[in-house]
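LOG
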Amino acid sequence: MEARLTSVVVYPFKGAAGIAVDAAEIRITGLATGGVADREWMAVDRDGRFVSQRELPRLALVRPAIEDGRLVLSAQGLAPLALAADAPAPAREVTVWNSQVRGFDAGDDAARWLSSAIASDVRIVRFDPALPRFSSRDYAGDSGAQVRFADAYPVLVIGQASLDHLNERLAARGSPPVEMNRFRPNLVLDGLEPHDEDALASIEIDGVVLKPVKPCTRCQVTTIDQSSANAGLEPLRTLATYRRDDRLAGVTFGMNAIVIAGAGRRIAVGSTASCEFDF
């Protein structure tokens, strides 16, 4: 069946706001725009362990932009911070979940900027592409799927109908609707039925072939209003009533996907998504 790609979002800084773009390059590690890759940068604590909105909701208020190949971060009350990928930087070992990864420390000035922005003692690191990080073979198989600082998989796909259905359920419980940015998808598809993405074997867009491989389990980040960094109980409370997956011991919404073919090509908002079901 055919759907339409209605949103493309790149998250160059893990945990910070995304950048909605009209088109993006697809790499084996996920999306990229302006020469900057998805989750190429992230914050770590003093022990080198990654931090995200789970621990520091104020990361939602850090706004990235790409200017002349540099990542520029903005936050209220602070002058913008420009980060260049080619700037000399010392290497250090950092941790993303159970993965030991090498990154490059962006320096003391960058650390002070972000620490002030989110009111926590953190440092900024950039992923070292010379040491690839692979997705779990339990779901990605022998595909060679890679990520940078993303949790586990290169692309997150959600159908617009899934969010619409959730918002109908929220309304029935007297709760306000939530926006798609609570779920931080890279690609949003219109024209599917609610949660059809769960059953897709492949998605082809502009010559790029994606394979959905694992439902995305959800945490308290979905309860954080991305415009204020304030947290509540929804939509996780409502999702738990109908989206619990005992196989994954959690609530799921959206599908993690890997790149099967077409790395290096570009995909654009408005393009047709040819979807094959895994029946």
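LOG (cont.) second protein
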Amino acid sequence: MAMVAGETSGDLLAGLMMQGIRAQWPDANLYGIGGPRMQAQGFHALWPSEKLAVRGYVEVLRHYREIVGIRNQLKAQLLAKPPEVFVGVDAPDFNLDLERDLKQSGIPTVHFVCPSIWAWRAERIEKIKQSVDHVLCIFPFETQLLHQHGIAATYVGHPLAQAIPMHVDMLKARRELNLDPERPVVALLPGSRESEITYLAERFFLTAQLLAQQQPQLQFVLPAMPSMMARIENLRDQVGASQVQILKGQSHAALAACDVTLIASGTATLEAALFKKPMVIAYNMNWLSWQMMKRKKLQPWVGLPNILAQEICVPELLQEQATPLNMSNAVLDWLRSPEKAQALARRFETLHASLLRDTPTLAAHAIQTLVKA
């Protein structure tokens, strides 16, 4: 079975799905593009998933030749020695083109995580139809949308809803991170991509400094990918945000321990919602990329919690609005409004329950059905 999972979130989702695949086929040969969570389950990574961790039109152009080169090399290998099935995990800009070529050659193709055609770039529906034999959907409303266009799809729930407990022990998480259990904690999650670190990390550190001036008792944690640790620590030291503790990974521990999180738009915002945490969503990217993305948007929100709620339930500060002052004020608003935070937590419990399924087993069963057919 060949698989491609782009960036950290794809590696996380694929790693969870692989639990079901391993239960179904313990000796399956799994290979392609993946990250450490997949490799921990015996996945053979021909390239690391971080090679695909690029967001934004301009950023993609900068890495275009390398990304296309990787895709062409992988395609040649898969066509020369076809797998029984190909599973693309998220990364639609990379995977859909590859899946189309594989499908045309007779290799069954599965795409895990429906491209967010309900949020932006709705025209991709035709490309999905050309490229994919079966889509594994993580949100319940997606299957009906795909069925309307003649695309086979199965709702498998969101693997993170199964991986994250309905209720977490905040004090235990704080002890594990050597934090004072009595003092409030702010988790900073500026993203895992290089471009996100470039555009957001310094602003997040400056925000932490402003917050510490307002509330000196605050504790700050920032979970970083091991490959980004040195860069993020250097940025922290340059800014002088010595109050921020950099963690090696441990994003779930940070979310479990925190009272509120300042977080980059992306899958991590859903993780924060599943941890029932109030959040401030921020994003900043290359100006030209932002202008192009705005034209493709179908929803007035970018954060998954707001898109799923179909309204603003957590603040979004984007581009020029994502200033340290604005972000610190939004975080302080949550810290000063415990009743509002509790109401949000109850809302997120309902969301969690709606996404909770036995995702690994359902995904493996759908793949098995396609392979047998």
